[in-house]
Amino acid sequence: MRLNEEQKQILDGEKGKILQQAMIDLVNYGTAMGAEEFVPITSAHISFWGISKVARCFPPRCRELTEEDIADFKESISSVRVKPITTINPGLVDLEKWREMGSTEATYNAAMETVEVARKCGILSTFSCIPYLVGNSPTMGEHCSWCETSAIIYCNSILGARTNRESHETSLYSALLGITPKFGMHFDENRKGTHLIDVQCEIENLSDWGALGYFTGHKVGVGIPVFANLKRPIVEELMQLGAAINVPGSTAMYHIPGVTPEAPTIEAAFGTNTPKQTYVFDEAAKREVYEYLNYEPEGKVDLVFLGCPHATLYQIRDICRMIEGKRVAKGTRLWIMTSHSIRASADRLGYGQIIKDSGSELYVDGCLLMPFIYTPAKRPKMDRIATDSVKQAFSVRRSYGSKMFFGNTERCIEIAIKGGV
Ligand code: F3S
To answer: Which of 147, 150, 342 to mutate to test the pocket of ligand 1 (most atoms within 8 A of CB)?
Structure first.
């Protein structure tokens, strides 16, 4: 890769060990991906929870870290400042209601340590997978380095900003250096459509958008789908679509003509590409996705989970309209996940109280999966779960072997009140 003078100095260690290692790894990564140079970035979205986990992005990598290694790393990284606006994906616990989530004091302390180090580095501890709604919203043409598949696809497809599918490590290195290797989604020619998805059925609610996403990801894999005959979506629908595409698929972008900034028309979405294949999403295809994701759904439900990706204020308002004046059934929990800034607004508007009165919980800063996989948190009973999110339906079943109901938000709330399907 061609490096400028400043980049060479960093590589030679003139700006300290942390930046040197970040540069070594980004150069190796860029070289492997065929990049010839770096491009400056204005935005990063990283995964930064647990200092010991972050420390593993840096040497020594070939052995377990000692407490001394971690203390040294903490001191070194605390003196570095990130270059672009940088936000963090969900962490392990709700930093206020960690006890209710079943988490331990040790996990809470580790999370608070992360917040403190992040603050010193200039990283915004948003702990949310919807960075574009909590202060990190680049505009068309800006180069970025984001991790989190559901956010990456939103960044490229809806904001018109440009990011590859970055990992925990590469997005952190890019945040520290303010650059990313220039390849893939940073070039116009790699952002054109490859497959056409012809929508021939009604898309009525959030779970239908998720079903369309699952179908699309399954068909196109790493391709870039272009949707035809799709009604104009709202933000929450786009969140479900993008998150679901990347459950079976691995794509950084889609085009909805008239919505995606670079695609005013289907012709513009494809550019000089000819669609490799056209797939029709009709009632039968939709039904097939629901049948696949509903795995022994009938019976008592332990947990109803909403807010994957994190719920917006608008979703919380709708949930409150459905649940106000009602109670969640004994033995069933209703958990809604969002960001702490959105919960603050929800509390101010009275939605927090409505949720509390119904016996539900509005949690923040985390994600249903992570605490129980990565920490000794006491897992709630999860034999059967109901959710309106494809990503959650798929991941929870795979991680915990839970039986699963997947359906629209209204039906999930009914299940929470009744206590089962
Ligand atoms: Fe967000 Fe966790 Fe879902 S990170 S997209 S709530 S799986």
So the answer is: 150
Give yes or no for residue 45 CB within 6 A of ligand 1. no
Residue among 111, 88, 87, 90 nearest 99 (CA): 111
Facing residues of 335 across strands?
A: 305, 361
Of 61-70, 114-123, 198-207, minimum mean pLDDT range: 61-70
Going by C-alpha positions, the residue among 80, 85, 188 that lies closest to residue 145 is: 85
pLDDT digits (tens, 9 = 90+) for 90-116: 988 899 999 988 888 988 998 999 999
Q: How is the beta sheet containing 43-46 ordered, strand by strand?
A: 85-88, 43-46, 144-146
- Confirm or reject: Cβ of 320 under 6 Å from ligand 1: no
pLDDT digits (tens, 9 = 90+) for 126-179: 999 999 999 999 999 999 999 999 999 999 999 999 999 999 999 999 999 999
Q: What are phi and psi of 385, to 5 degrees?
A: -125, 150
CA of 11: how far to CAs of 76, 166, 233, 263, 378, in Å? 17, 21, 45, 39, 44
* Burial (CB count <10 Å: 0-12, 13-18, 19+), residue 155: buried
- Residue 243: CB within 6 Å of ligand 1? yes
Residue 31: enclosing H or E segment and its boundaries?
helix 17-32
Q: Using most ligand atoms within 8 A of CB, pick from 48, 94, 129 the residue to mutate for ligand 1.
A: 129
**Nearest alpha carbon to residue 338 among 320, 323, 357, 325:** 320
88 pocket-lining for ligand 1 (C-beta < 6 Å): no
Cβ 369 under 6 angstroms from ligand 1: yes
**What is the residue whose two structure tokens read 């109670």?**
327
Residue 262: the pLDDT is 96
Give the distance between the most distant pair of CA atoms in the chain: 65
As a whole number of angstroms, the distance between CA 194 and CA 279 comes to 12
pLDDT of residue 397: 85
Percentage of the chain beyond pLDDT 90 is 86
CA-closest candidate to residue 292, choices 336, 227, 248: 248
The whole model's pTM is what? 0.96
Pairwise CA distance, residues 277 & 38, whole Å: 34
Ligand 1 mean position to 37 CA, how many Å?
32
Using a 6 Å cutoff on CB, does residue 391 contact ligand 1? yes
Q: Which of the pair, 38 or 101, is modelled with greater confidence?
A: 38
